[in-house]
Amino acid sequence: MATLERAGLVRSTRVGKWTHYRRDEEGIARLIETIRRSVGSADVADVVRL
Questions:
Q1: CA 21, 34, 6: angle at the middle one, nearest 5?
Q2: What is the pLDDT of residues 6-24, one digit of tens each?
Q3: Within 10 Å of residue 49's Cβ, how many Cβ atoms?
Q4: Residues in a beta bridge with 36
Q5: Conformational region of residue 36, where left means phi above 0, alpha means psi within -120 to 50, and beta covers everything else
Q6: Nearest-CA neighbor of 22 among 14, 34, 30?
C-alpha cells in the first residue's frame, strides 16, 4: 500500500491504530492519461490486458 500511496494512486487516513485507504481518483486519471499519451490511440482496456 505504501508504494501505491507514493505513486499517488491511493490516499491514507490514520484513525487510531488503523490506517484506512481510498483510491485517489485524480491520481488514477493522471496515470490513465499518461498511459494514453505514451501508447497513442490504444484503448485503456487494451493497455490493461498487456
A1: 30
A2: 999 999 999 999 999 999 9
A3: 7
A4: none
A5: alpha
A6: 14
Q: What three-state secondary structure class fits 23?
A: strand
pLDDT above 90 as % of the chain:
68
DSSP 44: H
Distance, C-alpha 49 to centroid of its chain? 16
Listed residue (9, 12, 1, 10) closest to 35, CA to CA: 9
| H or E segment to which residue 12 belongs | strand 10-15
Model-level pTM greater than 0.70?
no
3-state secondary structure at position 35: helix
